Amino acid sequence: MEFRQLRSFIALVECENFTLAAQKTYVSQPTISTHLRILEDELQTQLVIRDTKKISLTDRGREFYDFAKRVVGLEDQLKQSWLRKNDCLNLGASTIPSAYLLPRMLPGFLAKSPTTHFVITQADSAAVIDDVRSGIFDVGLVGTRVDDDDLTFTPVAEDRMVLMTPNTPAFAALRASGPLSTEKAREILTSNRFICREEGSASGASALAGIRALGLRIDELTIAATMNSQESINNMVMTGVGLAIASNFAAEEAHLTKGILVFELPVDSTRVFYLVNRRYSKPQPRVEAFISYLAKGYRPSE
């Protein structure tokens, strides 16, 4: 007993005619007859009473019709559910990509792949990488890469770290005076409280790298708070709790509120965002398409 035989039988019952059933199922009329004969032989019972104009069901035929409808309905549900899963892309994203990159990246991809359904979970970069490795996420978007032969990191965007300060008259005058020198940046950082990102954050690691590039150690700064929310850090900076080194994507948006001033760091602060996926596990077509789309749009700075 096969699904195609069940579908032929259902069409025959609903059309009450061999010719119409063949047209509905896009097979020949002899095929409908063959499928019916196979079913009746296998079940050892007559299912249909044949007439010159239309068919009618025996009692066992009506019983079998209900059974066939349920079985075929389950097959259809399974296919639909599986297709929805194939269209579903489980994406883990660290804080900055989730809040600032994905809103810029997804519209173009969804225009090319409108049936894709993203399930997006935000976590720090270390957690996203771990969950990609364990198969929880199909792909991750993170601000760092690690040495792991089981993972592939594809660069998709660049960012730079900047210094954020509150918009006070003193900092406004400093900003108007021109770019920060290394000496001035060191002085500002050591004479003001500082707000850090949590351990595991790629933004936090990049901020720490910027501090080191300025010739400072983190223990030379006065730490006011360690936080896992970039938006909360922005608000803390705005109200004067402390300064922060953060992604330019996050700083740009905060700067537009005029509550925060942004200073370029006098050291190279460029960093790259990556899509990470499992190297030895063939990704779903949607995942491959997503990685390919973002990779094609990447333009590394000189």
Q: How would you describe this protein?
A:
The protein has helices at residues 3-15, 18-25, 29-43, 59-87, 95-112, 125-133, 169-176, 182-191, 202-213, 230-238, 248-256, 285-296, and strands at residues 48-49, 56-57, 88-93, 117-122, 139-142, 151-166, 193-197, 222-227, 244-247, 260-264, 270-278. It contains twelve helices and eleven strands. Strands 3, 4, 5, 6, 9, 10 and 11 form a seven-stranded mixed sheet that branches. The protein has a two-stranded antiparallel ribbon with strand order 1-2. The chain has a two-stranded parallel sheet with strand order 7-8. It is rod-shaped. It has 302 residues and is of the alpha/beta class.
